[in-house]
Design brief:
The complex is a heterodimer of chains A (263) and B (334). Chain A is α/β, with parallel strands linked by helices. Chain A has helices at 41-49, 76-81, 99-106, 119-125, 127-131, 142-155, 172-189, 200-206, 224-229, 231-236, 252-259, and strands at 2-11, 15-25, 30-35, 57-66, 69-70, 84-87, 160-164, 192-197, 209-214, 217-223. A two-stranded antiparallel sheet of chain B has the order 1-2. In chain B, strand 1 (169-174) and strand 2 (177-182) form a beta hairpin. Classes of the chains: A alpha/beta (263), B mainly alpha (334). Chains A and B meet through helix 2 and helix 3 of A and helix 8 and helix 9 of B.
Chain lengths: 263, 334
């Protein structure tokens, strides 16, 4: 489905952020991508969705394949129309437009395809959005905004969703609800998902495989069951047991920062 | 009282032309986040194109006679022995001008559209992803490029071009006051407001309008959702250049063709700042306000001062409300 091979990415041709990163997402899979702040997770997604050039970023080496064709230089709207949809960090809903108009805007992902936008299916998936269809999207709660962000992706009938920190700023109960929805998107719509998260336990609950990113490189990868058993991950990502100074996952400061997102 | 209403009407009429000019600046800003300092010069080109097609070309040797002056038998019969300056005579003369007015409008719209697409493609598109400042500066540079090339292409000065509508005086009574306006101004007002209203309706109620609003709010997210953002950019430039061509035709027919049209268009930027760069409703209000204010100042203070008054008002508004009347009020909620 998606195969990222040894990419190097820099911003402004100066700040190198990804240093030979390789990862893959197979059809039907939910893959978690975890890592500290600034590790480069969002950059991976922007590289795959074609947004890098808009921020003066570039893929200087390696290649990205989507359904076996190289997409390093494909424009974002064409990728969306091919079924690769990026739900961005911070949700990025169109706050001044109504919920309905947000979904209509998303229907452009179907341009050139024979499918018609199925608004009812999205409203059935997220009944709360239906209640608020004619409200200004900026007035939705954080959880509802996240539903709208995912709903917009669904309108485009995606094959692969790049999902950036859906738990950001949500209360624990809301996080569970959103992650249940993500799992349903994967199972019912058959869309593959590359899930960037800070909340490792939530991500592991629905993911099949995981990648741990440190400093622009993958330092650990494997099936979720295996990652869960890894003592470093238990300490630094799952908050199991007490802090152990000898474990060398970056430094303690980073660990403390991480901890805010654990629950 | 009569005077007051009279100047009010004059103000609304010039305000509507300001609004038509402001429309193009706001359209480009909303979609691309670029303040187009060269919009006035796009209008100048529109005016010259209108002149080229409606006057120069219509009088060319290869053009059939009816383009220059359409004179079918029924029109002669209609005009008959209508008195000079009567509505009937004005309408008859407008109808006989109609072929070259249409030729002028179609030509100006098409030529200005091509010009804008070239600018968008060659100057703006390569700067995508660069700072907004770089893009704005390049529109400032465009002013000189456009003004210079207009000077090379057209030597015409103070030429007359046909008005868009028939022009005769209308006298009427309102609140027992005798009032007066030219039908030509009324036509300009209607054209300007119709264009303004239709753009608003398209933005609000069509699917393309949704794509444009989405791009205006968050370019990169719209792009990642499947909206062809570069095409939205060119659409915005098309809207600006074609409405600008109509504005150019109106200005040239009202005040004569001259390079000063470019500067006048540039000065409308102040009106746009007053209304809020990203608010169509705001600039409509600001345009009317400035139109009425300058008309009132003309009445009470006379020509020289009247020119400055509206811009003093603009400065005051911007000092009090830096984003204009209705500029970007962020809706936020965590
Ligand atoms: N547009 C940009 N221009 C320059 N540098 C950038 C840009 N975007 C990101 N960076 C830098 O690249 C690095 C990786 O950023 P990225 O957003 O990919 O991290 P992340 O893993 O998503 O972090 P977070 O968990 O905070 O979202 C950071 O050091 C960041 O400062
Ligand atoms: Mg990020």
């Amino acid at each position: 489905m998606l195969s990222i091979e040894n990419i190097e990415v820099a911003y402004h041709h100066a700040i190198q952020v990804l240093k030979g990163l390789t990862l893959s997402v197979e059809p039907g899979e939910v893959v978690a991508l975890l890592g500290a702040n600034g590790a480069g997770k969002t950059t991976v997604l922007k590289a795959a969705s074609g947004l890098l050039p808009l921020e003066n970023g570039s893929i200087d080496a390696g290649q990205i394949l989507f359904n076996d064709s190289p997409i390093n230089r494909v424009a974002p709207h064409e990728l969306a129309r091919a079924g690769l949809i990026h739900v961005r960090e911070g949700r990025r809903i169109f706050a001044e437009m109504t919920v309905e108009d947000n979904l209509i805007a998303a229907s452009y992902a179907l341009t050139g395809r024979k499918e018609k936008p199925d608004y009812d299916a999205v409203y059935a998936f997220f009944p709360k959005l239906k209640e608020r269809a004619h409200q200004t999207a900026g007035l939705l709660s954080g959880g509802e905004q996240q539903m709208l962000a995912i709903g917009r992706a669904l309108i485009g009938q995606p094959r692969l969703i790049l999902l950036d920190e859906p738990s950001l700023g949500l209360a624990p109960r809301m996080v569970d609800e959103i992650f249940d929805n993500i799992a349903r998107v994967n199972q019912e719509q058959g869309a593959s998902i590359l899930l960037v998260e800070q909340n490792a336990s939530a991500a592991f609950r629905i993911a099949h495989r995981g990648f741990i990113l440190e400093n622009g490189k993958v330092v650990l990868e494997g099936p979720v069951e295996q990652l869960r058993e890894n003592p470093d991950i238990q300490t630094f990502y799952l908050g199991v047991g007490e802090q152990d100074d000898k474990k060398s996952f970056r430094n303690i400061k980073h660990y403390k920062r991480r901890k805010r997102w654990l629950n | 009282m009569g005077q007051f209403i009279q100047y009010m009407i004059n103000g609304v009429i010039s305000g509507s032309v300001l609004a038509l000019i402001a429309l193009g600046i706001v359209a480009v800003f909303k979609a691309t986040k670029v303040v187009n300092f060269a919009h006035g010069h796009l209008i100048l080109f529109g005016a010259y194109f209108y002149f080229t097609f409606s006057v120069v070309l219509s009088e060319a040797a290869f053009m059939p006679d009816w383009i220059r002056s359409w004179d079918p038998a029924w029109l002669q019969a209609y005009a008959g022995d209508a008195a000079m300056f009567s509505p009937k005579a004005a309408i008859a003369s407008w109808v006989s001008d109609l072929p070259r007015i249409l030729l002028g409008l179609i030509g100006a719209l098409a030529a200005n559209a091509v010009l804008a697409l070239i600018i968008e493609r060659l100057v703006m598109r390569p700067l995508l992803g660069q700072s907004a400042f770089a893009m704005i500066l390049s529109t400032v540079g465009l002013i000189w490029v456009l003004e210079g090339s207009a000077g090379l292409i057209w030597t015409a000065e103070a030429e007359q071009v046909p008005a868009l509508g028939p022009n005769f005086p209308i006298r009427f009574e309102l609140f027992d006051q005798n009032l007066f306006l030219f039908s030509g101004s009324l036509v300009n007002l209607v054209v300007a407001l119709l264009l303004f209203a239709s753009l608003m309706l398209v933005l609000r109620y069509t699917r393309s309008g949704v794509a444009i609003r989405a791009t205006a709010e968050d370019q990169s997210t719209a792009y990642a959702m499947g909206i062809n953002v570069p095409r939205v950019f060119s659409t915005a430039w098309l809207v600006a250049s074609t409405t600008g061509a109509v504005a150019g035709a109106i200005l040239a027919s009202r005040n004569g063709l001259s390079p000063a049209i470019g500067l006048f268009g540039l000065s409308v930027l102040a009106v746009v700042l007053m209304g809020g760069l990203d608010s169509f409703a705001g600039v409509l209000i600001a345009s009317m306000l400035v139109g009425i204010l300058s008309s009132m100042a003309q009445w009470k203070l006379g020509g020289g001062v009247a020119e400055i008054v509206p811009y003093v008002a603009v400065l005051v508004v911007i000092l009090i409300r830096p984003h204009g009347f209705m500029g970007q009020e962020e809706i936020e909620r965590i």
